[in-house]
Amino acid sequence: MTEKSHSSAMRVPLLDLKPQYQAIAPRVRAVIEAVCESQQFILGPEVTTLEARIAAYSHTRHGIGVSSGTDALLLALMALDIGPGDAVITTPYTFFATAGTVARTGARPLFCDIEPETFNISAAAVRTFIERHCERRGEALVHRASGTRVKALMPVHLYGQLCPMEPLLALARESGLRVIEDAAQAIGARDAGAHQAGSFGDVGCFSFFPTKNLGAFGDAGLCVTQDEALAEHMRVLRVHGGKPKYHHAFIGGNFRIDELQAAVLNVKLDYLDDWSRRRAENARIYDEAFARAGLGANVATPTALPGFHHIYNQYVIRVRRRDQLREHLAAAGVGTEIYYPIPLHLQKCFAYLGHAEGDFPESERAAKETLALPIYPELTPEQLHYVVESIGAFYAGSAPPARG
Ligand SMILES: *Cc1c(COP(=O)(O)O)cnc(C)c1O
């Protein structure tokens, strides 16, 4: 009885950033105070430090701090000279910014479907797409239907697990494509060969949006690259393309990261591996609890590829009767989210691409079946078990979940 009332009082928000902040507040306040004292808000020493640290962390040579993950993608595309008449192959099952930035350059997003187990872009689908819908014209790979030149491949490491990059990199090499990794959700993720997210492509793009594993106190992002010339080009485009100042050989933008954000991130970076480890531990607790709950075909837990280091920015399950389950969980005090309810090829703004329902069946199915559960580091095992019990109760068709 006491156990039961304990359960019904339980609240499990999808994300609560306060306990993380409370644990590091003195250090964060001190660096914010130091920036205030310095009154150097733009491209100061904290930015330089962060760029060097994230580059090293990601096993790359150069880091360019930017204003958001979205701007990291946009800057990478601009630096690779992608624009009108060009096209970029990517996934329709991702956050909007992935294809949104491609379209903003004037280039055309070309979608390929995902692998159902990982939700990441399917290398087999990319290969088929290139074979069936593209052709070589001299140096160029041309998308036949639109006449655009396919310049790049933009895989997304969704939910914090890397796409297996070998087959994608091989395709890019064969077809002369540049590779931009949307690693917004994946900082610190590794494959079985211990290669870091962001280190595979021409440019790796990170987001420090507060909900990511490494979150700023506002918007921030960063590009990493091994290529010195590309790094320098991104640095120039980050400040309107002016070099020297007021001399513009290129049209860039204001893509700068704030010194205050860099200062916060330099503190938080010290804790990132520990936080990601605790997320993975929470995922293991969920996996085991779901296995014990015996929910059969009602719930499929996330697939972690063997040997891969998954950082669990999200813990996403596939479920039956998803929308009803979500309501049930909300009533039980459990926060959830749907990432993402409408695949990008079915978004109104991309109607000009001419897609219809059925074009990317795995992305469409994922959009209907997936549900993200709370996974942040400070959750207690009791909270995690409560989530699983609440889901069990839903499929048992019973009233409020009881513990035990
Ligand atoms: C968060 C995210 C972005 C955009 O990052 P912002 O910092 O919010 O601009 C891009 N792609 C993916 C996959 C993301 O999850």
Write the layout of secondary structure elements.
Blueprint: H1 2-9, H2 18-38, H3 45-57, E1 62-66, H4 69-79, E2 86-90, H5 97-104, E3 108-111, H6 123-133, E4 134-137, E5 140-143, E6 148-154, H7 165-175, E7 178-182, E8 203-207, E9 221-225, H8 228-238, H9 259-269, H10 272-293, E10 299-300, E11 315-319, H11 322-331, H12 361-369, E12 370-373, H13 381-395
Parallel strand pairs: 2-3, 2-6, 6-7, 7-8
Antiparallel strand pairs: 1-9, 4-5, 5-6, 8-9, 10-11, 11-12
The structure holds pyridoxal-5'-phosphate.
Give a structural overview:
With 404 residues, the protein is an alpha/beta fold. It folds into two domains: 21-269, Type I PLP-dependent aspartate aminotransferase-like (Major domain) (Aspartate Aminotransferase, domain 2, 3-Layer(aba) Sandwich); 272-396, Alpha-Beta Complex (Aspartate Aminotransferase, domain 1). 40% of the residues lie in helices and 14% in strands. Helix 4 (69-79) crosses helix 8 (228-238) and helix 10 (272-293) packs parallel to helix 13. The radius of gyration is 22 Å and the shape is globular. Bound molecules: pyridoxal-5'-phosphate (PLP). Residues 68-70, 94-95, 97-98, 156, 182, 184-185, 207, 209, 219, 221 line the site of pyridoxal-5'-phosphate (PLP).
